């Protein structure tokens, strides 16, 4: 216990107080509906852009290079991924209506194993 107290006394204590509102009533009045922060449409547009233009993973690129019997295999894969993003958005909207909840995001992870994006440096 003494060692801990000694260590704490040697540490520099720095903190800042952030004033959120002058009183509790003002704080409550300042709260907004979660829909203000809904970015699902922007997320969907970004997902569609990445599906259309994103770089394939090295493994998928290698596999596509060996496909001879399907014309434009890259285009076929991108079409499937676009359908997945669109379908996920549709399901998200249906869920929102059914349960009164707004589901954030769209197809961000739908094709993550197929097309590299967000966390893969694209």
Can you summarize this structure?
With 122 residues, the chain is an all-alpha fold. It has helices at residues 2-10, 24-30, 40-53, 58-65, 73-99.
List the helices and strands and how they pair.
Layout: H1 2-10, H2 24-30, H3 40-53, H4 58-65, H5 73-99
N-C termini distance: 51 Å
The count of strands amounts to 0
Tell me the radius of gyration: 24 Å
What are the secondary-structure elements, in order, as H or E?
Answer: HHHHH
Low-confidence stretches: 99-110, 112-122
Structural class: mainly alpha
Percentage of residues in DSSP E strands: under 5%
Mean pLDDT: 75
Description of the molecule:
There is one protein chain. It contains five helices and no strands. The protein has helices at residues 2-10, 24-30, 40-53, 58-65, 73-99. α3 (40-53) runs antiparallel to α5. Mean pLDDT is 75; it is low at 99-110 and 112-122.
List keywords for this structure.
122 residues, mainly alpha, 5 helices, 0% strand, elongated
């Amino acid at each position: 216990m003494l060692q801990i107290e000694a260590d704490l006394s040697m540490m520099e204590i720095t903190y800042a107080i952030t004033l959120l509102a002058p009183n509790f009533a003002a704080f409550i009045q300042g709260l907004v509906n979660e829909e203000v922060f809904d970015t699902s449409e922007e997320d969907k547009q970004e997902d569609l852009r990445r599906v259309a233009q994103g770089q394939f993973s090295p493994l998928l690129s290698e596999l596509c290079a060996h496909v001879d019997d399907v014309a434009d295999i890259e285009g076929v894969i991108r079409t499937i991924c676009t359908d997945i993003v669109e379908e996920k958005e549709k399901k998200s909207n249906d869920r929102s209506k059914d349960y009164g909840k707004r589901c954030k995001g769209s197809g961000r992870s739908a094709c993550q194993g197929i097309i590299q994006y967000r966390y893969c440096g694209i």
